[in-house]
Task: inverse folding
């Protein structure tokens, strides 16, 4: 961090849009001023109306630092009646330019030297910055034990599902525990209730020692409930870092 | 740079002058914090004024409530781009805390400390002269833990992370010492009207 240099706004070009679920798509932006981010960081995006009015929102960077030089992946959920997220889903087209600045955030981040074991807990689109951490670990071939406990409403709302199942299947110290709170069907390997302390203990079952770092991300209500579950599972409060998306 | 196809929400011209650049109005009360919500019992709650390392006065919950209680209605602005208008608060003005301790503002800088171990720095002139309070009531009800209860600092003219949640001490310091958030990329002062969100913003 260089304390005196302002983080300047830059233009970024939307290269491609990849649907993840019915309401969530990945938006890949090519940066005009490439930067290297740390897993967990976000950018601020700014949209300007013809009359000069500006709307600004934060979006986590889903790509890992190693993913694709000069390109970042934002993964945006369309919120009905929202000002910014529907713009990305309904208006933005490849080739469009938007303004953003980053990388931002110096607390909700994970680097390999910070060590582990690392427990990641995501609710819905809160998986985005945690995906960057999982991708970073995979790209490094890191041995740090990592587990992701991921809660969504239904199977088809699991963002990055296939990639996460693959990471899990590689059996190299990355564990995925899924839970679906509203799925009528029974899904192989997925739990069917809200996150509780028993589920947290199950997620860290493979760890050789208690998690050193716990990252929680999602809506405010989700983060509040999940941190209660983590504390009830006997994990030190001081290990927990949170990112709240609002709502 | 105008963004192709972006027009923004309908805006109320009467309110526009109250919304700093890059902010959007919300009816909700969003939450920003670095960790889990600490549960602090009012029976063990204590609030301390410090000059450097030295405690000059401390209040229990009951002693704090024997001080003059003031109501403030203010607009608040969160760095995650939410603004909320006309929020109603009640608590003890920092001026009245100093008065009860029998001191004048001893230094130009203050660190606010919280039960969760986090801190934020605010220049002392931004805390006195009717600008800031330690609030225990929001919208007529005891402040909930999620929003910083039992007590949070309220410095409404700065971005809301300066209004430290679960506050338990104000410490006057000789120099401007950065707090937890400010050491991790947030602006040292945080004026929403100048959009001082991150380190290095002018
Ligand atoms: C650090 C950070 C990282 C973020 N990363 C992501 C990300 O990776 N992907 C992503 O999709 N979003 C992310 N968000 C949320 C994002 O910034 C916006 O808040 C979101 O896209 C809604 O903006 P909007 O303009 O569409 O809706 P707005 O017009 O701002 O809001 C519409 C209504 O929805 C409510 N609302 C806002 N957020 C939510 C929510 N999450 N759930 C339910 N209701 C809500 C608001 O209170 C409001 O009433 C992040 C937020 C932060 C602070």
Result:
């Amino acid at each position: 961090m260089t304390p005196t240099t302002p983080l300047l706004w830059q233009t970024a070009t939307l290269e491609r849009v990849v649907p993840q679920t019915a309401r969530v798509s990945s938006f890949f932006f090519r940066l005009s001023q490439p930067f290297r981010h740390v897993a967990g960081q976000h950018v601020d995006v700014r949209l300007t109306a013809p009359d000069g009015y500006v709307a600004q929102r934060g979006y986590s960077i889903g790509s890992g630092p190693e993913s694709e030089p000069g390109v970042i992946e934002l993964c945006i959920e369309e919120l009905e009646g929202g000002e910014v997220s529907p713009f990305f889903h309904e208006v933005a087209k490849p080739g469009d330019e938007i303004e953003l600045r980053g990388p931002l955030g110096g607390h909700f981040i994970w680097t390999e030297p910070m060590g582990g074991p690392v427990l990641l807990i995501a609710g819905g689109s809160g998986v985005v910055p945690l995906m960057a951490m999982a991708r970073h670990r995979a790209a490094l071939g890191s041995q740090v034990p990592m587990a992701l406990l991921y809660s969504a409403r239904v199977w088809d709302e699991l963002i990055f599902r296939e990639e996460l199942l693959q990471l899990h299947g590689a059996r190299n110290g990355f564990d995925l525990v899924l839970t679906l709170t509203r799925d009528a069907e029974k899904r192989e390997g997925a739990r069917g209730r809200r996150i509780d302390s028993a589920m947290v203990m199950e997620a860290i079952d493979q760890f050789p020692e208690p998690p050193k770092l716990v990252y929680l991300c999602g809506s405010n209500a989700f983060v509040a409930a999940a941190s209660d579950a983590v504390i009830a599972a006997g994990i030190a409060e001081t290990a927990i870092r949170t990112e709240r998306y609002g709502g | 740079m105008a963004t192709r196809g972006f027009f923004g929400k309908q805006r109320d011209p009467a309110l526009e002058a109250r919304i700093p650049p890059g902010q959007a109005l919300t009816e909700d009360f969003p939450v920003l914090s670095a960790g889990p919500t600490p549960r602090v019992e009012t029976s063990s709650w204590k609030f301390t004024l410090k000059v450097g390392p030295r405690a000059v006065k401390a209040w229990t919950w009951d002693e704090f409530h024997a001080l003059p209680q003031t109501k403030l209605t203010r607009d608040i602005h969160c760095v995650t781009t939410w603004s909320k208008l006309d929020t109603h608060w009640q608590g003890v003005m920092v001026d009245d805390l100093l008065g009860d301790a029998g001191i004048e503002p001893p230094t130009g800088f203050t660190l606010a400390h919280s039960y969760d171990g986090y801190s934020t720095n605010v220049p002392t002139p931004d805390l006195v002269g009717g600008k800031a309070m330690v609030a225990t009531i929001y919208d007529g009800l005891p402040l909930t833990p999620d929003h910083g209860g039992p007590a949070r600092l309220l410095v409404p003219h700065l971005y809301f992370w300066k209004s430290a949640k679960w506050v338990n001490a104000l410490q006057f310091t000789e120099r401007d010492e950065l707090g937890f958030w400010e050491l991790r990329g947030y602006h040292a002062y945080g004026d929403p009207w100048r959009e001082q969100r991150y380190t290095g913003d002018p």
